[in-house]
Structures are given as C-alpha cells and as structure tokens.
Specification:
30% of the residues are buried. The chain contains eleven helices and no strands. 74% of the residues lie in helices and 0% in strands.
C-alpha cells in the first residue's frame, strides 16, 4: 500500500478491523472449550513458583511498556528507525530517500511504526504507537521461551524461570523501549525454534 501511495487512515483502519474480526471469528469457531480450559490451567497453574515468577515478571513488563511510550533520544532511532517512516508518512507513500542511506537497509519492523503513524494520523504520536507495538515482542518472546523450556525439560517451573530470565535481562528491557529490530528478531528466532521442536515431536 505504501508503494502504491495508499497510506490512508480509513483504509488501514478498515483493513486492521477486518483482519481482527476474521481472526477472532475463526479462533472462536475452532476453539473447543475443554481444550481451552485445560491449556489455561497448564499455562497459569497456581503453583507457588508460577505465582512468584509471574509477579516478578510484571514489573519488568510494566517498565518496558512505560519506557516504550516515551520519546526516543537514541540517534539510530531518530535518524533511521523512525525518520524513514516519518518521511514516508509525510510523503504519503514509500519511496527512495537518497539523502538518508540508513533507509536503504531492510525496513521490516519499521513498517509497524509507519502503520502506527497512518492509523494515528500523526507522525510524532504514531511513532510512539509504533514503539509501543514493538515492545509487545518482549512478552511474546518470553511466552515462546516458556514453551521451549517446558518442551525441553517437561517441568512447568523451568518455563517460568526461563521467561523470568528473559524479561529481567537488561538487554531485553533496553531493546524493548527503543524502536530497534533486535526485539522482533529474538521473537522470531524463539518462535522458529519452538516450531522446530513441535515439528520434531
């Protein structure tokens, strides 16, 4: 849509609404109540270890969320990760930017920031929306790490400790509050490993 010059707020809002509605409908139809309840019991078991680890994870996730909503001061973020989407948004389309060599790199997670700008209708606050969306990769990665540890050890406590170890790592926090791509990269690497483990079973 960006290449076609169709960075339209109503178009993006309609597209996102349609995708969310279709996914919610398909998920609701395919879900079996017993399976959903059993998965919920396993994931959120009331063991002491689970409760302690979950309580310990919450402050880290809260700090990541609050930090992601702050304006960026990092040079790479301002000059590359958000500057490119800002120029695309202001131009109304994605195009070559000869004055900014950084935008010649692959722009993948940056498209989430551009989508935030289009949906919000403003490049500044849309960039903060994009940063906040990118922060969500951290808890998703923690869930993937939890599932990997559970599969490798078959112990629920190992999954909780693994998730806590990831979320409490200073690097995971740092990468979650700025619009870098490493958080998404970690997420997709963890999900790929999880998919491989599932495939091997």
């Amino acid at each position: 849509l960006g290449l076609l010059g169709l960075l339209s707020q109503p178009l993006f809002m309609g597209g996102f609404t349609l995708l969310i509605t279709v996914e919610a409908t398909l998920s609701w139809r395919s879900r079996r109540r017993r399976d959903a309840e059993s998965r919920t019991r396993v994931l959120f078991s009331r063991s002491r270890v689970a409760m302690i680890c979950l309580a310990a994870c919450l402050p880290f996730v809260a700090c990541m969320l609050l930090g992601a909503m702050l304006p960026s001061t990092d040079f790479d973020v301002k000059e590359y990760h958000l500057q490119g989407p800002k120029e695309y948004f202001l131009a109304g389309r994605i195009h070559f930017l000869p004055h900014n060599v950084y935008t010649s790199f692959p722009f993948l997670t940056e498209m989430l920031s551009l989508a935030g700008m289009v949906v919000y209708g403003d490049w500044y606050f849309g960039a903060l929306v994009g940063k906040t969306v990118l922060m969500v990769f951290a808890p998703i990665t923690a869930l993937a790490v939890y599932a990997i540890a559970r599969r490798l050890t078959d112990q629920p406590s190992s999954g909780w400790f693994a998730a806590l170890a990831y979320l409490s790592t200073p690097w995971a926090y740092r990468i979650s509050i700025i619009a870098y791509t490493e958080g998404a990269m970690c997420c997709y690497v963890a999900l790929a490993l999880l998919a491989w483990l599932i495939f091997q079973d």
